Structure formats: structure tokens, C-alpha cells
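Technical annex B. To support the medicinal chemistry partners, we prepared a structural model of the target in complex with zinc ion, based solely on the information shown next.
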Amino acid sequence: MSRTTYFVDVILPLAVPNLYTYRVPFNWNDSVAVGKRVVVQFGRGKLYSALIRHIHQVPPKHYEAKYIESVLDEKPIVLIKQLDFWDWMSGYYMCPIGDVMIAALPGGLRLSSETKVVINPGYNLQENGSLLSDKEYLLIEALELRNTLSLQEISEILEQKTVYPVVKTLIEKGAVLIQEELKEKFKPKIESFVRITPYADNEDNLREIFSALEKKASKQLDVLLAYIKLSGRYTKNALPDEAGANTYTEVKKSDIVKAVTGAEAALKSLVKKDVLEVYEQEVGRFIKHGNATKISVLNDVQQQVLSSIQEQFGWIKADSSNKSALPILNVASAAPAVKDTVLLHGVTSSGKTEIYIKLIEQVISRGQQVLYLLPEIALTTQIINRLRKCFGDTVGVYHSKFNENERVEIWNTVLKANSGGNIDDNSSAGTHTADYKLVIGARSSLFLPFSNLGLIIVDEEHDTSYKQYDPSPRYNARDAAIYLAHIHKAKVVLGSATPSIESYYNSQEEKYGFVELFKRFGGVQMPEILISDVKEATKRKLMKSHFSPMLLDAVSLALQNKEQVILFQNRRGFSPQLECNTCAWVPQCINCDVSLTYHKASNQLRCHYCGYAAKPPSSCSACGDTNLKTKGFGTEKIEEELAIFYPNARIARMDLDTTRSKFAHQHIIQDFEEGNIDILVGTQMVTKGLDFDNVSLVGILNADSMLNFPDFRSFERSYQLMAQVSGRAGRKNKRGKVIIQSYNPDHSIIQNVVRNDYLSMYTNELLDRKNFNYPPFYRLIEITVIHKDVDMVNASAKFLADELKRQFKQRVLGPEFPLVSRIRNLYQKNILLKIEREASVVQAKKIVMEMVSKFKTSEFKAVRVQIDVDPM
Ligand SMILES: [Zn+2]
Ligand SMILES: [Zn+2]
């Protein structure tokens, strides 16, 4: 044991600006390491699990270091590369590193003295109690009496200060859960499936089984035949795929029971005879095979795009012989410098995923890891299934709809892959035994403990869901991915049919590499896009509610042809409200400065900002009249009206309300895929990365509301939304149709969508951005002051803005109230800072931070200041 006095600087899971220094007792000198958790006291005796960032021998200047209470981990749970990433995020997005730690670590790894512990309902004390230590047993007994205990209370019961190690091992033994996990009440839908046993999956054996069954068990024979038919096994379609695995469809038990009357008993007998077996699995995760979009070989265009990306990455030498063989392809100019990031601009349904798969294969074969980022993972079962099919168990999926247990498990599995598989083996007790080579995830997966990333794919890179708005860190996962790749010396592919202006600009400036893919895959044509002039139709009194005759006729035709329809209604400005017919009074939220939204299904008024809910009043609160009507045209209303126009159509809706539960998206998508829905009505969600085989018509109900939204990005966004939703139309053998309803058919953005002319949209937008000092020419920093007293907000915002103007002059805009100036009884006001791209943003941020801390010691210290770098 060394007698040197060590200190550790730790990151606390709190929004404090600085690291905090603690002293290491001699006997733990060998146990501390950067990236391990330690238990420390902070504030009024509260305990936290903090993370070691530095180890050194310098005592803190301004306070006497307390001792750490204990060391939690045998091995680091966070790696140096991640800590570097956290540092960058904290600096770039101007937020405390504790905020980054809270965002990065799953809750299960972030215990504090207020953390509540409960018994895991699935734990059997009778059976497993003998494996517990005395203290663990004592704790379980206490929990059986009192249901929940805070770590503080546990400390009192066990009469010891440090209870974290006990709780930690109990979590690992599956005996207790931290309470947060119980909030999630969903039950994954489990379904029974049937498959052939390895014994029967053999030509000779199967022949024998058949002849035996033919003689005396015809019912069993029917069941076996039904299985073979449904699974597509032993048929021509069952060709091996790229990975060499046979393709066949998984068969639900319920389908067999449907196909053969009295199948249950026969199935049991077949299971007994070891011919078939029944297994259970979560629905939504199973793999669908034989999809028409499935390919095993890249076509020529895709192959060229792949080679171009590989060349630009410097993975292969440029091959001049196969360049410009096809005019469709716009490869970056000759002899390119090696790029770390390449933008792949490929139209919808052009087969980008297949190109990604080839890149992933290449990286994995080198023994490196791949991160595949998706904007909203709940919507993208299709892609996950596709990748699982190629990469099997080495695919990990990570997102916020997982509960804490699942998140910790995935965290540990990724960590385990780093250390060659022998990190703390009992900490990853779970079903995942394979190492993840490929992780598919939403933005939070950037924080997983990768040690050897070779490639990050940012799919749909333009999507606003990559930005975290609240809480801090307010990061953009696309931009953060580029920095993370830089740490790992990895490459990044940004993919989109409608790239963000920023990324496209970076590629034009040759900061990023660039490749375009303009041909849809498998001969699917780009859809025909028509505009329906709503102004004209209204004048001629032809509108039926919000539907033009052109759209209604097209829907009828599609339904007649047994084809599917998607109708898109922008979320903004269309929430249904209650309004007094006499005086136009609209019920307002009591906490926020917004009108309440009317939900017909639950007959409730709800605030979408704070969650406040109330019963609709029976009379007007202003004039007392009882004549209240609903106004607005949300998706619920559209669904309702469609049911009147098309009484025989099966109509479903996909929006925030219908997709709250964990698997709701997947169920709607699955129903639509299986043809159980004729018309799908939805908000932004229906624009995202879904490919359906039978959609012939897409209707955009109101293009104007998007275009008129007051935001410098609204044209760009409108283009992206309309182009993306249009991309859902089109089938293999038939050109799809898109109808855009608008009062302003000549609008340049609508015209750009019709002509599929991204470049014009980009060129016009870029000019505006330049003229009005917006990104990509300027960087934006938005500073928001928040307080419950409106006068305080006004005065403090003015004070801060004046201070900033002294330094930054005309680069400061505001202060101004945002569109919604009061949320949850707190008023807010924004100040916008625009910094030239060439200027030192680091310097500017430093000045801003100094001013904010000065502000924090002024008369306005009670005012909350929120900083958003690169707001979206
Ligand atoms: Zn509210
Ligand atoms: Zn009234």
C-alpha cells in the first residue's frame, strides 16, 4: 500500500460548474481509477455516486477536501474517450459537465441518497435467499415490510454510512430495482411462434415424419403443412441471403390455429414428437423476410456510390476506370482529399440502407464498432429488422423508451466488448451474451462506452429530433457525432434525401465529402406531384370541409384499387380548440400562455406544454353563453370526417396521442404494412423513414401553415417535410401520386417540391441566410431568462442584453418574448447572439459565460438563465 496522499477530481451528477476534489484514504490508493464511480458527500451530508475524472496530489485551494466514502466499481464504467467527449460537449454547449453526466449515464448507474429502492417483483426470496449476504437479507426483509426505502433510510437500517455496494450487488442479483424503473407500466407484447426443430429440419428425417403422419395422424400432417406453407421453408423463395442464412418467415402460433381447425392438440403432439417447437418472443422485434425491397447485391449505381464513399474516406484507392459510367451519378471531383465526413444525398427509396450495410460490414470485419444513429428509433422497426437480419445478435438497440434495467444492460455489454469480454462478468447478467459490433440508437446512444468506433452513420441527418431541447445539454446529435468520430479517428456518413442547409453547405465548401444518389431503387419511379389550389376551390364552393375535390377523388380511386393512402397534417397551428360561438373566447391554460387543446376521444382540454388537463366548460367563461364549438383541424378531426366520406375504409391515426405507449408506433406501422389499414392520417411521424409497398397516394392537407411559421428555417423545414412525406408514395410497378393542398400554389418552395429540386431550394435559402446573417454563415447562441415574475424577466433581460451589446454590438438581438411567453407559470424572454463563422466562437462563449456569472451575482441572481448553442 502506497502512503502517497492522492486527491480525485470528480464529476457530480449535479448542475455545478466545477469538478469537486476529494481525498483518497490510503487503503484505496490502488482502487481509484479514472472512470470509476466513488461515493462522496456533497452539500448537507447528501451522498452521491460521482465519477473520477482526474487523480493527482494537489489539495484544493479554497476548501478542505473530504474523504471519499467508497469506491463503487471494480473497473471503470466510463472510458477516457467518453470523458473527452463529455468535456467537449460541456464546453461547446456551455453547460455544466454534471448535466452531461446525467444525460450520458443510465439512471441505474447514478445513485444518490434520495434514490428509492424497491423489491424486484420477479425476485424469489425463497429460492435465492441463500445467495444473499446477511446485510443483503436484512435489507430485503426491511423492504418487504416497507415497500420502498431511500438510500438514506437503508443507511440507517444497516447502521453503516456506505450502502451503495450492498445496493449495487442486490441490483445485479436481480433482487431490487431502483424505483424509477417502475414508472414504466408497459408490458411488451409477447406472442407464441412455431418453428421446426433441428431434428426435423433434415430432408431424410422430414420424409420419414411425413410418411408416419400420413398413415395415422392427418391433423398433425395438416399442422405441419400449414407451418411449411406459412414459413415459406422448402420453397423457391427460401434462398440463402447475403449472410448465408436461409430466409423464411417466422410463424405465429395463432396463424396456424387460424389455418387448421383443432390445431392446438395436434401441435402439442408434434412438439412431443420433436418435430415442431413453440417459442415466445416480443412482437415487433421479429424479423420479416422476403420483403420486396430486400436485395443481396448492390446495383451499379449503388456500387458506384459505395466506392465513392470508400474513396473519399481513403479506404480504397480511387479507380478512374469506373467513374462517370452513369450520368445519374454525381461523384465528387477527381482526386479528392481524404474526408472524415461524407454527405450522402440520396432520394427517398434509393437504397441508402444497402450502402450503409456494405460499409458496416467492412468496418466490423476490421474489428471495429459501428454506431447507426436514427432520429426516432421507435419509428424505425423496419431498419432495425433489416440490420438484425444481416448482423444478427451483434446488433444492439438503445433508446430512451427502454427502462433503466435494459439501458444498464446494454451499457455493460458495450463496455464488455471493449475489454475483450472479461469485465466484471456478473454485472452483465442478462439475455444479451453477444458483443455488440453495431449499435442502432437514438441520440443518447452517442454516450455508450465505445472504445473502438470505426464508423458513425447519421441517417436522416436533417431531422430536428437529433436536437435535444430540454433538459441541458442542448446538443445536436449529428454535430456531436462528428466530434465523437474525431476522438475515435472514425468516419461519419450523413445520409438524407433532404440534407440540412448546413450539411449541404459544408459539402459544397469541401469540408465534407459528397456523393449523390438520384435513382430510386428497384425501378420505382419518383411520384407525380400535383397541387390542389384551395383558394380556387373555396371560391367555387367545391371544398368539402378541408378536402378539395381533387384529393377526395384521388382517395376514392386509390381505395377502389385496393391501394393505401397516407394523409399528412402538419402539427403546428392545427390543434383543435373549444371556442365560444358568441364572443370567440377560447379556454386558456392556467399555467401557460397558450390555448388548451380539445381532445374529443377523452373529452378533455389539455395543455401540450405543461400537461394541465380539465373538463370542457359547459358555458363560456367570458359571456356565459353555452354555445361552444370546436375549432381547428387536427388529425383526430380528419380521421372523423374521413369516416363519413369513406364509411367502408379502415382509417387509423398516428400522432403523439396515439403513440404514447412503448410499442404503439410499431403496432400501427405493422397494421398498415399488413394491409389492415386503408388510410393512415398522421403528423410529422408519418414522414419518417418508413417504406410501404402499397401506398399509391399521399395527401398533404395544408402546406401553407408550415411555410408561414415564423422561423428562419421554416422554408427549409417545409421542403424537407413535404419531400419526405411525398417519398412514401410509389410502388414497384406503379408511379405514386402526391397531392399538395395550398392557398398559394405558386410558392417557390411548393414548386421546388413538385420539381424535386433540392438545389434551387438550397440556393435560394443560402442567399437569404447570407443576407440576414443566419447559419451556416453565422453561429447562433440563444440566451433565455426565466422567472415567475414578468417584471423581473423584463428588467433582467434588458440588463443582460445591454451588457452583451456592449461587447457584441449589433450581433445581439432582443430581448424578445418567444411565441409562448409563459410556460408552467414561468415567463421567459430570449436574447439572440449571432457570431460570424470566421470569428472565434470559443472566445465569444467565454465572454458570454463571464457575463452570465456576473449576472448571477447581481440583483437578478434568482433569475434562471438558459443557454442554447445552435438552437433549432
Ligand atoms: Zn400549460
Ligand atoms: Zn362567450
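Notes passed to the chemistry partners:
The two ends are 53 Å apart (CA to CA).
The first strand starts at residue 6 and ends at 11.
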